[in-house]
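== Folding task for one protein ==

=== Format: two labelled lines per protein ===

==== Paired sequence and structure tokens ====
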Amino acid sequence: MVDVEAFIQSPEHRPKSSIIIAEGIPLIDLSPINYKDTTSSLSIETLVKEIGSACKEWGFFQVINHKVPLDKRERIEECAKKFFGLSLEEKVKVRRDEVNLLGYFEAEHTKNVRDWKEVYDFNVQQPTFIPPSLDQNLHFQWDNRWPHIPPQFREACEEYAEEVEKLAYKLMELIAMSLGLEPNRFRDFFIHNTSNIRLNHYPPCPYPHLALGLGRHKDTGVLTVLAQDDVGGLQVKRKSDGEWIQVNPIFNSFIINVGDMIQVWSNDAYESVEHRVMVNSEKDRFSIPFFLKPALYTDVKPLEELTDDRNPPKYSPINWGKFRTARMQSNFAKSNIDNLQIYHFKLS
């Protein structure tokens, strides 16, 4: 028996009956860096400016001609549908718990309200490197739990992860250049990365006026690369007026958004933006976000190249391992206060 009360959003956060379609979120063509016959120094320069403008004005953009093979995306999407179509008894065989934080989960909360969804998480890099300084106080494990059904599930996930990770690193080079940095400025932060992929399933919901598939939140990591199906439902909070804007699906595109760690590295030049997911009363929705995340030992702080006397650092250093651990603990313990956020590290 489903406890409907657990899913009901407070009145101020419930979906509106009218939907504003996102016409302003930039659509960026990555051909200049992916196809030699169209590459020129001018077009790459234009591309970098487009990326910088999108990060500054929206915190979100969509990309096409990204070079992630469509067949690999379709394969993981098909495996996700087959997995979520299994019985609950079968899915909970790989259910995450308070020790191992990877696998299937059906009772996630955002802002202390239950989301109308089920998920499956796996880490891209295995095994996860845990530094000794963090290991002493770490009671978590990051071990991928692979289901036996469908039989090609693990292979499809790993092949897709390899391709979308390449795209994420290309985007980080463009973001670095848009900030006036060397293209490879961020690469060393990801040698022992903790990046992960999530498979989302949002079943049809009979309470679309009360519930959300995923409540309002900002992404804690560095960069998110989202594949969504043709059902749609992602909404972005527009920076200019605070309105919720729906991002309509574009075939074979990815939706990109800046995470909290880029906001800190850029010293607030680029801002992590709130977003949420609407439910659909008639259709299942599936999406697959890739979350680019640094090594656990990384101390994230405003980059020296981007700070000076006129623009001093706005954040004290954030140890990613401790930050992520604190956020994960909040998945299992409801609280009346907001969980750890980057604003807790703001310098006065």
Notes: The domain at 4-345 is CATH 2.60.120.330 (Jelly Rolls). Residues 153-178 form the longest helix (26 residues). Helices lie at 31-34, 41-57, 70-84, 88-91, 132-135, 153-178, 260-265, 320-329. DSSP finds eight helices and 17 strands in the chain.
